[in-house]
């Protein structure tokens, strides 16, 4: 089903909504208890104040209600890859899940990357997170490996999206 929502750039006033949506499902996304909602809000407020193009954080809104968000944040800290590699995060409010909002956001992120010189988008997804895996796989992402298990959580898969390039696992 096609969702009736718009995607707009997030501003600092959106930090509370972004943290609330994140908090609703952080345990599923990370397989462990999240910090407090206030800590999450402080984290995203800091990000919103400092993030610069080609990276960004966007909000999906239905009318004036936030229903999800998408981030593309820097993932490498050097002058070569710094502007060209991004880490993706997608979160949809529980009340809006399973009706196409997540797909709309990841498709938006793919297109934004392609149009803004981002060559590689990475995403870390727990193997148990079926919804997220299905969403990225059907939008052209490829799983390229797994991380070692750290604090006893489920296994993280490392997914990548390479705009305009048809990569296969080597
Ligand atoms: C992952 C997430 C963003 C998907 O958003 P969504 O709006 O519910 O997803 P969509 O409705 O666009 O559906 C995308 C695909 O996932 C599938 N899906 C959605 N929820 C599902 C569920 N609970 N179980 C299994 N599959 C599910 C859909 O069927 C669809 O696949 P299909 O087209 O092959 O049928 C959302 O579930 C979420 O916010 N999860 C918690 C946060 C998270 O894990 N984020 C990813 C880590 S960065």
Overall description:
By secondary structure, the chain is an alpha+beta fold. It contains four helices and seven strands. The protein has helices at residues 15-30, 37-50, 101-115, 130-137; strands at 6-9, 56-62, 65-74, 85-92, 120-126, 142-146, 156-161. The protein has a seven-stranded mixed beta sheet with strand order 1-2-3-4-5-7-6, with helices on both faces. Strand 2 and strand 3 form a beta hairpin. The structure holds coenzyme A (COA).
One letter per element, helices H and strands E, the order comes to EHHEEEHEHEE
CATH superfamily heading of the domain at 6-120: Gcn5-related N-acetyltransferase (GNAT)
Described by its quaternary structure, the protein is single chain
Small molecules bound in the structure, each named once:
coenzyme A
Which key terms come to mind for this protein?
globular, alpha+beta, binds coenzyme A, 28% strand, 4 helices, single chain, 170 residues, seven-stranded mixed β-sheet, Aminopeptidase
Q: How do the strands and helices of this protein lay out in sequence?
A:
Elements: E1 6-9, H1 15-30, H2 37-50, E2 56-62, E3 65-74, E4 85-92, H3 101-115, E5 120-126, H4 130-137, E6 142-146, E7 156-161
Parallel strand pairs: 4-5
Antiparallel strand pairs: 1-2, 2-3, 3-4, 5-7, 6-7
Helix pairs in contact: 1-2
Bound molecules: coenzyme A.
The site of coenzyme A has 23 residues, from helix 1, strand 4, helix 3, strand 5 and helix 4.
Q: Brief description of this entry?
A:
Helix content is 31%, strand content 28%.
